[in-house]
Design a protein that fits this description.
single chain, alpha/beta, Protein-Tyrosine Phosphatase, Chain A, five-stranded mixed sheet, 5 strands, about 45% helix
């Protein structure tokens, strides 16, 4: 029998996701457990929505948390459309687009169905099946792993809503260091706490109610499983997938040493 995931006890969901004023879907990956009983250290890896509307209080919170590096997984046109990150001085921005899209493609995955609100589950399942194959994702994950492993860095990872691309990066990192499947999935599913916020923000942005399903605005364990199935199908194993990113056992060992108590 699997243990009850610890995630709910690490931080309060509603209060924590708005810790950075002007952003949402924020959390620290702290407290997640490995199969051998270790836990992820607090204050090293965070994830959130985009940071374009980070206000003075949000910037102050970012600095208070000691975050040194922010990875933006959006493409250039998408960042121009949604707004570039508003970071305080001293925080390094890494632009690490997941997709090699057309230069004029300004849509996040959850926005591409605005004209056709049906089929959100099928659409996101296809998107997740591609995540392990994207050259941009490979480069982003390798860079994030290397940055996190440096003992002086504290890293925040985000995309647009902080749920799909950021969710895959977080899941990949957590699985690499041996966090249990229960806790990986539980952290991943916490993005569903932000469905209402995302819907409200999109409605305000487009000046009308957004007719998109929770399947598209949220996440589902099925999406994560689709991506992991793609890893097994195309690479043979998760370890071989990491190897294709240039992450050998030594790199993973350094990451475990940095992240685990």
């Amino acid at each position: 029998m699997s243990r009850e995931p610890i995630v709910a006890g690490v931080t309060s969901t509603d209060a924590d996701q708005f810790r950075l004023s002007g952003a949402w879907n924020f959390r620290d990956l702290a407290g997640l457990r490995t199969a051998d009983g270790r836990t992820v250290r607090p204050g090293i890896v965070f994830r959130s929505s985009q940071l374009a509307e980070l206000d003075d209080d949000g910037q102050a919170a970012l600095l208070q948390l000691g975050i040194t590096d922010v990875f933006d997984l959006r493409g250039d046109a998408e960042a121009r459309h949604g707004g570039r990150d508003n970071l305080p001085d001293g925080v390094r921005l890494h632009v690490a687009p997941f997709h090699e899209r057309r230069l004029d493609d300004a849509t996040a995955p959850h926005e591409t169905r605005l004209d056709s609100p049906g089929g959100g589950r099928e659409y996101l399942s296809r998107a997740y099946a591609e995540f392990p194959l994207l050259a941009g994702a490979h480069a982003a994950i390798a860079d994030i792993f290397d940055t996190v492993a440096d003992t002086d860095n504290r890293v925040l990872i985000h995309c647009a809503a902080g749920k799909d691309r950021a969710g895959w990066v977080a899941a990949t990192l957590l699985r690499a260091i041996g966090v249990t499947e229960d806790d990986i999935v539980a952290d991943y599913l916490r993005s569903n706490d932000a469905i209402g916020t995302l819907r409200s923000r999109m409605s305000a942005q487009y000046g009308q109610a957004v007719n998109l399903s929770d399947d598209l605005l949220g996440v589902d364990e099925e999406y994560y499983r689709v991506a992991m199935d793609a890893v097994e199908h195309h690479y043979g194993s998760f370890e071989d997938y990491l190897g294709s990113l240039g992450l050998d056992s030594g790199a993973v060992g350094r990451l475990r040493g940095r992240l685990l108590d």
